[in-house]
Each structure stands twice: as C-alpha cells, then as structure tokens.
C-alpha cells in the first residue's frame, strides 16, 4: 500500500515537473523572420550607382551583397557592403551606398539585386530595375 | 520541490527585459549642431554636438557626410533648405567615421570638431548620424548643410 502511494506521489511530481519545464521553455527555438528589404532607388549618376533602401532584420544583419545583372542575366558587378554601420543591426533606415560602375557597362534597365543575410543564416533578396539619372534643373 | 520548480519557472528567459526601442538622437538640454540649412565655409570646423539616449544601453554611432548635388532625400526632417542647382561632383567631401560609446551608457553627450577640407566641392551636403544601441536598433538623423567657398 505504502509502495503504491509512493509511486503515485512520484508520478504526480513527475507530471508537475514536466508541465513546469514545458511552460518554462525559452525562446531559443523561435526563429526570427527573414530580413525585409525595401529598395527605393537604383539610379545611375555618372560613374556611380546610387542605391537606397530600408532593411529590417530581426536576426541582425550579417552580410549584404549588391549585384547588378544585364537584362539577359549576365552578372556585371557584385559589391559586398561591409560598412560596420550596416552590419550587426536590427534595422537600417536610409541605407545609402554609391557603387562604382565605371567601365562596367551598367545601363538603364539592368537589374539590381540586394541580398541580406542575417546572423541566423536566413537570406532575403529584393530587386529593382536600374534607372538613369534625371536632370531636375530642366524643370526649373 | 514543487516550490523550487515554480521558482525555476519564474526566472525563465521571457522575463528578461528585451530592448525593443530604437535609440534617440536629440537636442535635449543642449544647442545641437549641425542643424538643417546651416552654412559652413571650406576650411571651417563643424562643432558636432548631439545627445544620444537609449532605454537600455547605447552601442556606437557613425557620422557620414556626403554630397547632395543630385538632390536626393533621406526623409528624417520636414525642413526644406534652399539648394543649389544640380551638378556633377568633381572633388566632393566624403567623411565616414565610426565612434564607440563606452559600455553601460544610457545617455551620451557626443561632441566632435569636424574639419572641412579647404579643397572640396562647395554645395549641398548631407550630414548623417546613425546611432545603434547595444541590442542592434538603429536611429538615423540626417541634416542638410551647405558648404560655401
């Protein structure tokens, strides 16, 4: 009889512990959402391509790569962004990079791809058709 | 034992305060500098001064100055300054420096004297401050200035 009571008590305690530890599970296995990229501008200005974007990376930015491909798909240029202000952050408001495109034959209609990888290895890519410089002075 | 288990539960990771707010770049209690539409001569010094705060812990900041000869925007202010005509850069000023804030700070008085090179293109420039807290949240403060001869 005493053995039965002890066994029941042990089972009850085991159940309580199981429930407690289940409730105590931390967020370690919660995967962050993949990075979000909003590409605002990819504009040719002379020998540079002006790229502007906003990024949200809840897993922190670990790597940013810009690549430019021709309309037939040939990659003309890749440009890893290594500025410390853009790496290891949760958000980038007003990402702004000038890519040297001198002698790279980059032209209007080419495709800019921006790839952001977070610290968890998750990758997102946004793309935008490259535009050519506008001259606002003609309007004034 | 049951009490111990419950105590263990009450100290789980969810209860740790997570930093969910961006840090703040402000002029609280100071005369901040530079501000929109200020003009500086080539060879002058820009006496940078802003207050940086965060609800948990500050991390680092970056100051970047680049030309705005193409009239692009960064949209952190509603102020509109009188701009020169668009032009192609010949020898534009490019300034890009990272600064670390000592650990454990929630408020930091950031001051630097930034010398303007005497041989750069005059014109419209963006003065950009990016403040990042220890958690990784970043705040951008963009100011429009003009460099004159």
Describe the protein.
- With 140 residues, chain A is an alpha+beta fold.
- Chain A has one domain (36-133): Sandwich (Immunoglobulin-like).
- Helix content of chain A is 16%, strand content 44%.
- The longest helix of chain A is centred in the first third of the chain and has 22 residues, at 2-23.
- Chain A is elongated.
- The N and C termini of chain A lie far apart (99 Å).
- With 149 residues, chain B is mainly beta.
- Chain B has one domain: Sandwich (Immunoglobulin-like).
- A five-stranded mixed β-sheet of chain B has the order 2-8-7-4-5, with no helix packed on it.
- Mean pLDDT of chain B is 89; it is low at 9-16.
- The chains are: A alpha+beta (140), B mainly beta (149).
The total tally of domains of chain A equals 1
Adjacency order of strands in the biggest sheet of chain B: 2-8-7-4-5
Can you tell me the overall shape of chain A? elongated
Distance between the termini of chain A: 99 Å
Tell me the number of helical segments of chain B per DSSP (H or I, 4 or more residues long). 1
DSSP helix fraction of chain A? 10-25%
Low-confidence stretches of chain A: none
Mean pLDDT of chain A: 85
Residue runs with pLDDT of under 50 for 5 or more positions of chain B: 9-16
Could you please say which CATH topology of chain A applies here?
A: Immunoglobulin-like
Beta-strand portion of chain A reads: 35-45%
Beta-strand residue percentage of chain B: 35-45%
What's the number of structural domains of chain B? 1
> Which secondary-structure class do the elements of chain A indicate?
alpha+beta
- CATH class call of chain A: Mainly Beta
Numbering strands along the chain, what is their spatial order in the largest sheet of chain A?
A: 5-2-1-8
State the end-to-end CA separation of chain B: 78 Å
Shape of chain B: elongated
Q: Biggest interface and which pair forms it?
A: A-B, 34 and 36 residues
The sequence of SSEs of chain A as H and E is: HEEEEEEEE
Number of strands of chain B: 8
């Amino acid at each position: 009889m005493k053995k039965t009571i002890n066994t029941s008590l042990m089972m009850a305690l085991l159940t309580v512990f199981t429930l407690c530890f289940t409730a105590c599970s931390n967020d370690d296995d919660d995967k962050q959402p993949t990075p979000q990229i909003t590409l605002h501008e990819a504009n040719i200005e002379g020998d540079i391509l002006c790229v502007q974007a906003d990024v949200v990376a809840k897993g922190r930015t670990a790597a940013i790569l810009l690549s430019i491909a021709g309309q037939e798909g040939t990659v003309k240029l890749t440009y890893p962004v290594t500025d410390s202000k853009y790496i290891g952050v949760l958000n980038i408001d007003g990402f702004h990079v000038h890519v040297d495109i001198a002698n790279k034959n980059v032209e209007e209609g080419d495709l800019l791809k921006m790839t952001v990888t977070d610290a968890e290895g998750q990758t997102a890519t946004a793309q935008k058709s490259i535009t050519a410089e506008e001259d606002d002075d003609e309007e004034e | 034992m049951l009490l111990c288990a419950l105590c263990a539960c009450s100290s789980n990771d969810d209860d740790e305060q997570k930093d969910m707010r961006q840090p703040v770049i402000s002029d609280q209690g100071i005369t901040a500098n530079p501000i929109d539409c200020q003009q500086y001569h080539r060879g002058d010094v820009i006496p940078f001064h802003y207050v940086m705060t965060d609800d948990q812990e500050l991390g680092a900041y970056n100051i970047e100055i680049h030309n705005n000869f193409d009239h692009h925007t960064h949209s952190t202010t509603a102020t509109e300054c009188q701009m020169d005509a668009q032009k192609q850069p010949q020898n534009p000023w490019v300034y890009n420096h990272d600064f670390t804030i000592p650990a454990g700070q929630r408020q930091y008085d950031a001051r630097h004297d930034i010398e303007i090179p005497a041989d750069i293109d005059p014109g419209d420039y963006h003065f950009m401050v990016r403040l990042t807290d220890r958690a990784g949240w970043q705040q951008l403060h963009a100011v429009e200035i003009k460099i004159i001869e």
